[in-house]
Amino acid sequence: xxxxxxxxxxxxxxxxxxxxxxxxxxxxxxxxxxxxxxxxxxxxxxxxxxxxxxxxxxxxxxxxxxxxxxxxxxxxxxxxxxxxxxxxxxxxxxxxxxxxxxxxxxxxxxxxxxxxxxxxxxxxxxxxxxxxxxxxxxxxxxxxxxxxxxxxxxxxxxxxxxxxxxxxxxxxxxxxxxxxxxxxxxxxxxxxxxxxxxxxxxxxxxxxxxxxxxxxxxxxxxxxxxxxxxxxxxxxxxxxxxxxxxxxxxxxxxxxxxxxxxxxxxxxxxxxxxxxxxxxxxxxxxxxxxxxxxxxxxxxxxxxxxxxxxxxxxxx
Length: 316
Hints:
Layout: E1 3-10, H1 17-30, E2 34-41, H2 48-53, E3 59-62, H3 69-79, E4 84-87, H4 99-109, E5 113-117, H5 125-141, E6 154-157, H6 174-180, E7 185-189, H7 204-223, H8 227-254, H9 264-296, H10 310-315
Parallel strand pairs: 1-2, 1-4, 2-3, 5-7
Antiparallel strand pairs: 4-6, 5-6
C-alpha cells in the first residue's frame, strides 16, 4: 500500500494533460495506491489550465508566468504530501505504467532514488546527440553513475527533499545533488514513447543552461565546504607565476637590458601577483559565505539516515 504523490510540470500541453491524467489514475487505482496527482502549470498560453480544471482528482498549481521546468518541479515537490514522490514529464513520453516497477525496485534495493533510463529513446537524432554529449560530460564532471539523468521519470523518498531548493535547470541533476548528501541512487530501464501531440520545449538555451548548472553541481560536489582549497591553489599558482616573471625581470635588468624594450616581464609580474592576492581574498570571502549559508539556511552539508542510541536499546 504505497502512498505516492505524482508531480507533473506542464507547459502548453492542452492535448496531453487529460490522457496523461487518465493513465496515472488507472495505474494508481489498479495497484491500490493512496495517491495524489499534482500538475504544475508553468505559465501556459494555450488551454492547458482549462483542460486541467476538468480533471479529478487533481491538485493544480498555476504559475503567474513561465518560470521553467525546474521551478515547476520544485513547487510540485513542496506541495506533495505522501511518502513517495514521482516526477515525470507532461508530454506523455514517460509511461506511468513504469511506476510500480520503480517503486518495487526501490524497496527491494533499499534505495532513496530510482531514476528512469530511456534505453530505447523515441526522439530525433539531434536531441539524442545533444543528450549523449551531455551525458558524457556529466559522467566526467558529476559522476552520478546514472545513464540518463535527463529522464524526468524518477521516484524519490519524501525525506530526500527536506531543506532542498531547486534552481536553474537543476532538475536534471537531482540524483547527483542527493548523492552528494549520501542518499542512495539507482536506475531502472523504462519505456519511452514518441510524442504524439504538442511540440517539444527543448532548445539550445536550455542546453546551455543545463551545462552551466552542471558546472555548478561539480563545484558544489567538490568544494561546497572548502572553496578556499580551489581558490587558494589558484592564488598560489598565480603568485608562483608572478614570482617567476619577477625573477625574469631582475635577470634582464642585471644583464643591462633596456626595460623599455622588455616591458612584458614586469607587467606579467604585477598582473599575476595581483591575481594571486585576489584569489586568496575571494577564497576567504567564499569560506565566510559558506559558513553563513549553512548557519542560517535549513540546508546542511550532510544527511543523517539513522540515529542509534546504544543506551536506549539496552533499556528496551
